[in-house]
Amino acid sequence: MTTETMTAQELTDLRLGTLDTAVTDWEAMSKRLKTLSTGEGGGVNAKRLQTEANAADWNGVNATVTKNFVTKTAVEFQDVAGQATSILGILRDASAAFKKHKADLRTVIDDVAKRNIYINAKGGAVASVPSGAAAGDGDIPTPSDEELAVAERRVKRVLWEASETDRIAARALRALARNKHDFTGDGPGGLKEADDRQGKADADYWAKKVKESDPGEWSDKDVERFNETLINQRDNPGFSERFATTLGAEGTLQFWRDLAAPPGGAVEGERAKVLAQVQDNLSMTLATASHSDSPAMENWKRDVIAAGDKPFPIQNLPMGPNGFQVMSSLMGKGKFDDAFLNDYGTALVKHEREFPGDPKVAWRDTANLNYPPTDEPNDPFAGFMEGLGHNPEASLEFFNDSVKADGKDLDNWDYLVAKSDDAREWPVGEDGKPLGHDALGHALESATIGVPHDSDATPPKHSAGSAELVNRIVSEFGKNSDRLDESPMNDSFGNITAEYMRDVQDGMNGDREIKTYGSNANLGDLPRGQLKDFIAHVGKDPDAYGAIINSQQAVTTELVNEGYHDKAKYAEFSEEIANRITPGAEIAGIMAESRTQAVYDDKIAADAEFNESLATTDKWAGRAIDMGLSRFPVAGDAAGMIIEDIRGAVVEHYTRDSSEQAGQDRSDFLEEQRSKSADAMYDATYQAAIESGTDPENARSQADSAAREVRVGYGMGRQRAGS
């Protein structure tokens, strides 16, 4: 069972004239009925009739039958007027909302069209680039896969909101029209109130069903219906708070424990797929509820934390997962309240650090709380880290905080991230890797970048706190680079490196400052070699490699463009350009050596994976340019062309033929990458020189100089990565 979503064609073709006419008609109807009900404007009215009927001296049958009939009729007029007001409010709000949805969709369609993206009838995003003769002599960039995905998500968000408006309005109107022979005067005043009432009604229904039945025995149809309700109501405070507080903290935890892990072992097949959706949607529902500061919800949050060490068995058995394990399994999606996350995290850390005996024993229960199910222990820190991964503010605060346990104050950073005698021993999975490190990477990613780790939102300027955290990450893993060998955190560290590429290049550029996006991470202050060792080990991961290469190429190109833009400032312009190119060239050399070690030496990744990552991580090219766009000599569509040129250069110069027929030995590949890196910077420098007004002969000379500088810097980077 799925919730139908409006298509782009349906929303575009939606004609609101009839709805607007209905609003006008109901405005007139509501006004007339109000006059009949209350007497506004004078004349006979129901309120006056009711008052006179109650004041009259009735006798005999009239004292009962007639009087009751008159007063009831008067009340009905008031109810009719109230219902008309409710209908008017719903229609008026729906009309305004649909107009906004249509305008929002048009804005998205027009916006993405500038990047040669076409939105089809169903809301899908496809490239719209003319080919051959149709394109003429123009260099029309092809949108990347990431751009298409972002465009499609933007459209689907608008369509979801429009579908929600339609669903809420239709349900409210059906409820008002349900009784053909009676009226209600207490209908909702508009869509917002209708949404709140519907959410509370759904919460009451499902909370009652949870209490009166065994969720583990729900039919597949029941589970699908519950999931559909969550999809519709997960962002509705009326539903989320009512559902959570009606069940209570322990009731909420017991509910998921019973539904997710009934007797008989793991749930499989289609039901397991639906339960995976329920887990995500219930997580988002509780995240919504956590932002309420009502007394009932504050009690729920305190009680959830208090139940952290309580076992939640099934069918009154003595053993079962504890509250921390159950709650953490419901933190994978949605943005939970900052204070709740930090209070919960403090309690979780304190519980584990004060646990008598081996902490791993505390989490040994393997009830299937997570979907798809596994036989691995339920480490609650993994789910909690995912919660932090969706709340940058809470994540940054948590990693800068400390917890006192057994009389000892210890930084959360030292316990969960750093390598020390006091550090946590993360449980490992079947592949030998720490189970929660992928989630830990997500938490660090959100804390440093400033948006949820899986978000398309534009990150804010780097704060002093987030930049300092990046410094700690690079220092910790740069001096303990063996911890990065096949680490599940490497893709996140690659994203962090890409986001802070200006800081990275500044840290590799000696005393020559490179302006950063907000606060500087001051990576140049670290002991010699830590920054390069960090990049070299992270770059062995294909996704990290792609993010770093795309960002490096973009930032280096931008720095060259900035140099030409401010050319008059420099007495030795060629030297200035060389200074701007060297850090990026070193990074390219480090990345080439890292890729080679991963493919040829360690054999931990296939060459094709690195090729693919160059395309799937190309958003970092645009992101790096967006940070410094105001200093570019161009903007708008021209900037888009620059970004596309950079993406094209990355794919052209860093992709290699990985077929067996094109096999190369290690040294040949590295030399090829050196030449291609130089070619990429030659192209970028020549283009910048021409656009600044330099004649072609001098532009070629300056581009040749830039390419030579890349070859030198590339060699320096290779030596560092290979040492």
TrEMBL record:
Q: Where is this region: Disordered?
A: 657-676, 690-723
Q: Which domain of life is it from?
A: Bacteria
- Name the chain's protein: AG2 protein
